Amino acid sequence: MIRAEVPVPGEGDAIERNYALFGGPFGPVYSFYMEHEPVSRLIARVVWGADIGPFYTSMRVIDEVPRGGVIIDAPCGAGVAFRALRPEQDVRYLAVDLSPAMLRRARSRARKRGLPQIEFIEADAGAVPVADAAADLFLSYFGLHCFHDPAAAVREIGRCLRPGGRVLGGAIVSGPSLRQKVLVRPRRGAFGPVGTAEDVAQWLQDAGIHHVTVDCEGAFVYFSGSRA
Q1: What single string gives the DSSP state of each residue in 152-210?
Q2: What's the pTM value of the predicted model, to 2 decimals?
């Protein structure tokens, strides 16, 4: 596993809160229900008033990456997107996460699925240790709302993508609904500053991502685009 320079958690900041959350009892619970789609769908509907189906469907694009291509999955969490990767698929898959606990779960999942092409990197998704224009596909699943600077994390996506490279992702967003006002608490719990659906679209455009789509589903947004 590659270990990049990781920010040192500061008291009360988003990084420290996420270290504590995903390194504690919530980490394995979250990993379990994200891996089991029926459970995840139920929780998403009951808690967030949203459909998480597009999250799982979007992973199919992993199979479209050409031979020798590079996929960055940041943050990878416990590796739920690995389900769309074939053992024989000739790609370089970089699984990036700031949480050592989540990376341990992701490594275990990769072993069980027999996926030797995955490289594990302990790093901030806002500072992925790869060269500019390295990736054919960047997966950014449900991490932006946790980051202390989500706009910078999206700029990093733009830096990592080669011309024509694609980004797919999802995030929790703030908004006008009562559910969002109650559940989405910027800079509290696991949340960083968060942002609205409009913010997500603007971050992508500012990062040089074109053909941007941002689809709202309750408190979730699903986004996509490609590097100019």
Answers
A1: HHHHHHHHHEEEEEEEEEEEE---SSHHHHHH--TTSTT--S---HHHHHHHHHHTTEE
A2: 0.92
pLDDT at 222: 98
- Tell me how far apart the alpha carbons of residues 54 and 170 are, in angstroms, rounded to a whole number: 9
Split at pLDDT 50, 70, 90, the class of 12 is very low
Q: CA 167, 59, 64, 139 torsion: positive or negative?
A: positive
Q: Determine contact, residues 84/60, Cβ cutoff 8 Å.
A: yes
Q: How far apart are CA 21 and CA 16, in angstroms?
A: 9
Amino acid in the structure at residue 83: R
Task: Give the count of beta carbons closer than 10 Å to the beta carbon of residue 186.
Answer: 13
Q: Which domains does the chain have, with CATH numbers?
A: 9-124+131-227 (3.40.50.150)
For 105-153, how does the pLDDT look when each residue is reduced to its tens digit (9 = 90+)?
999 999 999 999 999 999 999 899 999 999 999 999 999 999 999 999 9
What type of residue sits at position 180? Q
In angstroms, the Cα distances linking 35 to 109, 130, 165, 178, 210 are 10, 28, 27, 28, 31
Closest by alpha carbon to 48, among 203, 224, 151, 171?
171
